Amino acid sequence: MPEQAKNGDTVRVHYTGRLESGEIFDSSEGGEPLEFELGAGQVIAGFDEGVRGMQVGETRTIEIPAEEAYGERVEALVQTIPRQGINLETEPEVGMNLVLQLPDGSQIPVAVTDVTESYITLDANHPLAGQKLIFDVELVEVKRSA
Q1: Helix (H, G, I), strand (E, B) or coil at 139
Q2: Element of type H or E holding 12
Q3: Contact in structure between 3 and 53 (CB atoms under 8 Å)
Q4: How many alpha carbons lie under 13 Å from residue 85 in its C-beta half-sphere?
């Protein structure tokens, strides 16, 4: 019987990620498989857990609740700020992604979700926060840890 993928193995998988609505948000289709070390925290926890125990050639559908993916949406991460309080090189538009520099030097990626003449609304939640993620996965290779 073929060995199952286990923590410490480097695995390569083809995958298609979709939302409950059926909308595809990511896929390795037509490209290189995703390679990561199982159990090393290189992918979201639910994905790691779903691949563990698979055998090469096996396909599986992995359903990951929001809390095991990118977490629930946090409304406190949505802020409306005066336009004069933000220095932008281009005119802000809904859907634009920005990186804010904090006073301590760290950076936060945000999405512009609303723009008025006076204010801009920024959302620092991950775009997939609050979403159940569904992955169709095929394990294509396992490289054993030494």
Answers
A1: strand
A2: strand 10-19
A3: no
A4: 10
Beta partners for 12?
Answer: 35, 141
Are 44 and 68 in contact by the 8 Å Cβ rule? The answer is yes
The 3 state secondary structure assigned to 93-123 is CCCCEEEEECCCCCEEEEEEEEECCCEEEEE
* Confidence band of 37 (pLDDT split at 50, 70, 90): very high
Residues 102-140 as b or e (16 or more Cβ within 10 Å = b): eeeeeeeebbbeeeeeeebbbbebbebbebebbbbbbbb
Pairing of strands 119-123, 133-143: unpaired
CB atoms within 10 A of CB 41: 9
Cβ(131)–Cβ(70) under 8 Å?
A: yes
Query: What are 70-126's pLDDT values in tens digits?
Result: 999 999 999 999 988 777 788 889 999 998 888 899 998 999 999 999 999 999 999
User: Tokens 């695995």 label which residue?
Assistant: 11
Q: How many residues does the chain have?
A: 146
Q: How crowded is the C-beta side of 128, counted as CA atoms within 13 Å? A: 20
